[in-house]
Model the fold of this input.
Amino acid sequence: MEFLTGVKEKETIGIRAILDGDLVGKTVKMEGAVHNIRDMGEFAFVILRRADGLVQCVCEEGKTAFDVKNLKEEAAVVVTGTVATEERAPHGFELRLSEIRVLSEPAEGLPIAINKWKLNTSLETKLALRPITLRNVRERAKFRIQEGLVRGFREFLSSQGFTEIHTPKIVSRGAEGGANVFKLNYFNKKAELGQSPQFYKQMMVGVFDRVFETAPVFRAEKHNTTRHLNEYTSLDFEMGYIESFEDVMAMETGFLIYTMELLGREYQTELKILGVEVPHIEKIPQVRFDVAKELVSEKYGRKIRNPFDLEPEEEGLIGRYFKEEYGSDFVFVTHYPSKKRPFYAMDDPADPRFTLSFDLLYKGLEITTGGQRIHDYAMILDKMEKRNMDPADISDYLMIFRYGMPPHGGLGIGLERLTMRLLDEQNVRETTLFPRDVTRLNP
Done:
């Protein structure tokens, strides 16, 4: 009888093993995809693409037991070679090959040259060929950075006593209400795809005090803009026993400080590939919603047209104002009007026309919405009545308040928007693995 005892040790090694070890002059094995072939006649350069980067390999006539003319780009191979120092090669070394073993070959040539430094093609083409174009070094670097953002979110919140949860995405009623929902027939019952984990994460505050989730949310909005998606990843957290909604903003600030330091420390390769410098964050300014509108109106001569919401142009000007005046790419805009916030948002006791809520703008784009929630049963019923809402529709949610809830608040961060702003991309689809919008359902 044979037994498995854990991860099987491989014969092949990665880039880090070569960089960390004393392997110059030693023979090693490495696996990867053939990213590029440059046949120079008596020798050829074969560039391997691995998850951890590109590796330059040298094939020489009489020294490599393989005819490079029989090698195809995108073939999966295992190579054997001697490690040699080469400052001009990626990572400062190359492999001088003695053997190439082909594991698999493509059935046909690539429809687009993904081994170029930049994909000089349209966004539409990149998305139509997404499984292939993501193999481009720059394209995939975006999503390594995005992985770092999620990693930072998890690590920081775990260090702050948060418990990770996983809530349902098929729900009987959306947290935000309204018509912008994807409706489902759930075994002859009416159901929807969740717009937000809001109700469930509030429920779980009554269980774990502090919870977070990283998961998709769905909005059936017929927007076709550079900032909207119909499915995106939301980084959500909810925390109990808060003294004010500023506790929530402070927690997000801590997450951003931690995560930007993590990216600068452990994602240097991808940042360098993309030419991105992570922002240095020590503190983030905050400004009231109504004050922000007045500030940009006065400085930039823009008339206030909608007193109850921020238009995209206004968000951009607010971002510009705080960059010019305070050198900050981030700004919290607080106290949004009550009529523009969901029923569960806590109204400001000093002026019930406004809420104890906020948005975080990053380079003039909203990436976060959050705030303090109503935790008193009578208070939430009163607000629902004023909005002509039927408590019977969300009785499961209201149960938590009937049986007691602490003061609490939380937020949701749009992962793709955060990545877009960090990388200075102009379209959120550039930082979405497989975008879902009003026109795209494939691949």
